[in-house]
Design goal:
Layout (H helix, E strand, L loop, with lengths): L1 H13 L7 H4 L9 E2 L12 E3 L5 E3 H5 L3 E6 L7 H14 L9 E6 L7 H15 L4 H4 E4 L3 H11 L1 E2 L1 E3 L4 E5 L1 E5 L5 E6 L8 H14 L13 E2 L11 H33 L17
Parallel strand pairs: 4-5, 5-6
Antiparallel strand pairs: 1-7, 2-3, 4-10, 8-9, 9-12, 10-11
Helix pairs in contact: 1-9, 4-8
Length: about 290
């Protein structure tokens, strides 16, 4: 029976998505220019000028207001990861004991220079209502701007994106960043976070504490998700889906690999030379 289980597990391992063929996993050319370089301790441009939800000119420093700040770069028309990153963030922040606008601020910056303050206002309304705490509207800013300040900010934090004119979409990485009150990059959170058992809330809380104390974290080793598209002409999946499949494959390998090790260890102990055989009759294995 155990031998059958081992063979079945091995078959699943061999069939896991980690073994995707090269022609299926090679990124499209546009993604060769998309990346997230973790620029810890980098200074963001506090004087970069954007537009707030009412269309007023504000600097990035105005929005930080000298507080520890969570930064999210996301364009508001994004059909995939940007919305999910913000959804995960608001769920995680609900488990943080401090309030947006009091102990820390949140700034969401669109990297699509065609987006408008009206779009930012609609996005802000949704997330402030979802967050559900009074005063959040004063501390969660949704900004739009021209290309030059957008690129200054993106380059400062290592967020490299590209526009796809054919599909009118952006290819970009997904992350959440925490900045010190002086505007230094303290920590990155990559990809998506389910906040299972409050884990994301705890990580956000710790990140906010460390950033408020001017502490700079270390680069995180995680699976980087790219937001892209499904191309019906080639029949290939989006890089978002492909990276999720890879993540599932890695998780499958780790779980099954652990199970295989445990079963192998039990089998080895059972068959180890000199191991007393027990259970054959009431006195088996006992000294005579």
């Amino acid at each position: 029976m155990k031998r059958t289980i081992l063979l079945a597990a091995a078959s699943v391992l061999l069939a896991s998505p980690v073994g995707l063929r090269g022609d299926e996993s090679d990124p499209p050319p546009i993604l060769r220019e998309v990346n997230l370089r973790q620029k810890l301790d980098s200074q963001v441009p506090l004087d970069a000028v954007f537009r707030d939800e009412q269309g007023r000119a504000v600097t990035f420093g105005d929005c930080m207001a000298g507080k520890t700040t969570i930064l999210v770069m996301a364009y508001f028309r994004c059909p995939m990861l940007c919305t999910q990153v913000l959804n995960d963030l608001v769920k995680g922040l609900k488990g943080v004991p401090w309030n947006i606008g009091d102990q820390f601020n949140v700034v969401t910056v669109s990297f699509d220079d065609r987006e408008t303050p009206e779009m930012a206002a609609a996005k802000k309304k949704n997330y402030v209502e979802e967050y559900g705490r009074s005063g959040a509207e004063k501390g969660w800013h949704f900004l739009t701007g021209e290309q030059q300040p957008i690129l200054r900010l993106a380059n400062a934090v290592g967020f490299y994106f590209r526009y796809d004119p054919k599909n009118d979409l952006f290819a970009h990485p997904s992350c959440v960043m925490i900045l010190t009150p002086q505007g230094k990059v303290s920590r990155y959170f990559l990809g998506l976070h389910e906040n299972r058992e409050g884990a994301y809330s705890r990580d956000l809380r710790l990140g906010l504490v460390e950033a408020s104390e001017q502490k700079i974290g270390t680069p995180v080793d995680s699976i980087l998700l790219y937001c892209y598209r499904y191309d019906p002409e080639t029949g290939k999946y989006t890089m978002t889906a492909l990276n999720l499949v890879r993540a599932a494959g890695v998780a499958t390998v780790l779980v099954l690999g652990s199970a295989l090790f445990v079963m192998w260890r039990r089998e080895w102990r059972k068959n180890k030379p000199g191991t007393p055989v027990t259970g054959s009759h009431p006195g088996a294995g006992a000294p005579s």
